[in-house]
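In these records, each integer encodes one residue's backbone shape. Here is one protein:

___
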Amino acid sequence: MSSSYLNFRNTIPWLILLLETLFIVRSYFLFLRLDGQYLLRDSYPEFQDVNHMVIFGFGFFLMVLRRYGFSSTGFNLLIIVLGVQCSVLVEDLFIFFYPQANEGVLKSIGKAIISMTAVVISTGAVLGKINLVQLIVMTLVELIVFYASRWINRTFLGVLDHLSLMHVHLFGAYFGLAVTSCFPEPSPGLDKNRSTPKSDLFSMLGSVFLWVFWPSFNSLLAESKTKAILNTYFALAVSAVSAFMLSALAGKDGKFRMTHIHGAVLAGGVTISFAAESISHPWIAMILGLLGSVITILGSHCLQSCLHPPLKIHDTSGVHFTFGLPAVLGVLAQVVLLVVREWTNSSSLDYLVLLHIGAFCQTISVALITGFITGSVLNTRLLKIIPVSKYFEDQIYWEFPHLAVGF
């Protein structure tokens, strides 16, 4: 374990120190003053819900690999706290030029945490195949590109700030897939590329955390918070029940499969994210939750085997069918609901539909293009790429002698 590609002493500490120095200097010159008027305008409980969701929920959710649990949770915490500071830096620069956009400190940090969800979702696609230096670089690049994509949607396509932020699932999933397509595939018989009952249990615990806090995630910036919370809950409830039903139908001998459950129970929250505050009837949210669960389980059951051989894309945590496809379904549902709601206003309907479809195409195109470029840059020896034989291995980064025997 003394090979040069495993020694990060001369890179990671100095990279983190450089970033923290930049963030501290930035806070001295640009950071919002902690005035009481700003704090009173913010909602601390909602902020904490989203914070718990991203830290605990995704931290456990990514613990799907049998010998990569410490890296999954530890690196998740590191990139989130680094990424949130980077995201707030970008937000501060925007507020510096547009002071009227100042919504308060907690609201700014809450938006930064939601933006980090895109990075965490992308991490699920490349989990175990990139080292910590590559992960930090990917985090910084993706956050900046995602903010640029949101700015395009808001400025040129008229997308509301809340809806532009809800593109995190779509952007994160396809950015991650584009990045992972640039890395070599793991060996088919690699024993570390699988889960154990213990890792599945921790991953399911992460899904429970995400399930509980998802209504706060969808309603943080919504104008009609009550609608957003209730519709998200109904969609999540139906997707959770449908997950067990569909898993029993798709599984062998009618038994439940944990890989089905821990992703499909969240499908309702992802699918409803775009239309949560605009739905007036709960049955619509419930149908979207059902459809989201269906597309997730069908994707995990057959899509991976259909797309993997021709495209050579190894999606470690299945983010494509857990977040990507339900997000696509949510965009389509938003367009359909818009057509139904504005049917009588035919003069502007075509224009509004075109804007929503344009925002979808812009988001997914930017994610794929920049993700592929980022993956190509990361897949260079300058950043100490990991050999395929060392994929999904905690022992590269952590001092755990017992991992050599088994975990």
